[in-house]
Amino acid sequence: MLDTFRSDTRAIEGLPVRLVVALVVGVASMSVMLNMLSGVQGLATSELDVKPTPDVVTPGEQDLTFVVVDHEGNPVEGATVIVKSGTADIDGTGVPRAKTDDGGTATLSLDAELGSNREDGTLVVDVKPPAGSSFVDRRENTNIWVVKA
């Protein structure tokens, strides 16, 4: 009986064909499953953007309005807008911050200052997404430009 298995070469010829068929079926099945998963938005994240108004200011105290929107331009409620010193400074203690309302708007009162011998500078704007949301803020936001009048 052992001699019959040694002389039978059909299994060796059929094996590569079966492996190729299994590979093609597996790749096709995986492609269908991945296509179904890409339609699910539960794991997707949406980038936030903040639009300060005005984005060019002079030194001194003033109110600025910030609108936080998602990638489609819809307002985002509950996001925290934070303004930090960049090449320009913010007078006062603490870091100015405010939460957006249901229209995605937050208002901050800032006292911007320029260093000595500086004609201009920037204030950096960050956004912290609402807790438990699928929003992220990975890209740089529009900075506020402070210019001597």
TrEMBL record:
<keyword id="KW-1133">Transmembrane helix</keyword>
<feature type="domain" description="DUF7382">
    <location>
        <begin position="43"/>
        <end position="108"/>
    </location>
</feature>
<keyword id="KW-0121">Carboxypeptidase</keyword>
<keyword id="KW-0645">Protease</keyword>
<dbReference type="Pfam" id="PF24107">
    <property type="entry name" value="DUF7382"/>
</dbReference>
<protein>
    <submittedName>
        <fullName>Carboxypeptidase regulatory-like domain-containing protein</fullName>
    </submittedName>
</protein>
<dbReference type="InterPro" id="IPR055806">
    <property type="entry name" value="DUF7382"/>
</dbReference>
<dbReference type="GO" id="GO:0004180">
    <property type="term" value="F:carboxypeptidase activity"/>
</dbReference>
<keyword id="KW-0472">Membrane</keyword>
<keyword id="KW-0378">Hydrolase</keyword>
<feature type="transmembrane region" description="Helical">
    <location>
        <begin position="15"/>
        <end position="37"/>
    </location>
</feature>
<dbReference type="InterPro" id="IPR013783">
    <property type="entry name" value="Ig-like_fold"/>
</dbReference>
<keyword id="KW-0812">Transmembrane</keyword>
<dbReference type="InterPro" id="IPR008964">
    <property type="entry name" value="Invasin/intimin_cell_adhesion"/>
</dbReference>
